[in-house]
Amino acid sequence: MRSAAPYGDAMYAQHPLPSGFGAKTTAREAIGARRLDGTRAIVTGGYAGIGLETTRVLAAAGAHVIVPARDIAKATAALSGLANVTIDELDLGEPATIDAFAARFGEGPLHLLVNNAGIMAAPLSRDARGLESQLAVNHVGHFRLFARLLPALRRANGARVVALSSRGHVRSAFDFEDPNFERRPYDKMVAYGQSKTANVLFAVEADRRYQPEGIRAFSLHPGAILETDLARNYDPEELKLVVERARRIGSFKTVEQGAATTIWCATSSQLAGLGGVYCENCDIAPVKTEGDDGVRPFAIDPAIAQRLWAWSERWLS
């Protein structure tokens, strides 16, 4: 029997199953023969990188996938020829576009929300509200999208919310004293890490709040994938160091492998009755205080998750 967890239910559930899958599992292997006919899904950033593979796999299984896009032309070109896919306009850094997107979504149910889009290692910039850009897009924008789509998630009578975090969360807990780097020196990777910790904490608290209404939430690390635009803000020397380190620990994945944990979290019956957990390699990750895998305790602490939720709600007006 597992011992009581010092950080509450989230820590208690944060143990590998094991699932039988692994780092080399592809998204199509993760979904297997499961059909999603009648399922409505939203995949932010679902037109590039692992988001595009997520869209492909969900749509091929019969789900109707709505892809919100900041770049409609790019999304149209990437998704051309795919059945069961609709493109709509949304910019996670612009609150008005989030509200308009949710209004257009209408009265139907939403069974699956995949918060996939994100930016990484961005130079310091702040939006009109004063929010640091990575925090604004990666967390606050997705938080607002979830809040606006909550009625649709409730109407599904069984919905999953999947937040893409990153191993980068180990770089920083959430700094409630100076989240927007107004007093401390700006470090683009610390800012990225903070935003990815926020993604994990969001899933912890969303699951706690809404599981009585049939909404379960998960966060995940997809793995290190070269063939995406996420690292576009690195200069060549920085990127070289990142690549060399990833190769040393053997952590690179293909796009098909990178989308696998998203698909597993979104569709697997192995997660029935579970939620609020951080996953990697198509399994629930262990809790670790060091190393290149697992989730840090500060990212799944329910008290911190509740505090972040209250902080995030101030940006909904």
Describe the structure in your own words.
- Helices cover 39% and strands 13% of the residues.
- The protein has helices spanning 9-13, 27-31, 49-60, 72-79, 95-105, 133-155, 188-210, 236-248, 255-258, 260-267, 302-313; strands at 40-43, 64-69, 85-89, 112-115, 159-164, 215-221, 224-225, 252-253, 277-280, 283-284.
- With 317 residues, it is an alpha/beta fold.
- α4 links the parallel β2 and β3 (85-89).
- The protein has eleven helices and ten strands.
- α5 (95-105) packs parallel to α6 and α6 (133-155) runs parallel beside α7.
Based on secondary structure, the structural category is alpha/beta
Major sheet characteristics: 8 strands, mixed
Mean pLDDT: 92
Order of SSEs: HHEHEHEHEHEHEEHEHHEEH
Give unreliable regions as ranges. Answer: 1-8
In terms of DSSP E residues, the strand content is 5-15%
- The share of residues in helices is 25-40%
Q: Return Rg in Å.
A: 18 Å
By DSSP (H or I, 4+ residues per run), the number of helices equals: 11
Count of DSSP E strands?
10
Q: How far do the termini sit from each other?
A: 45 Å
Shape: globular
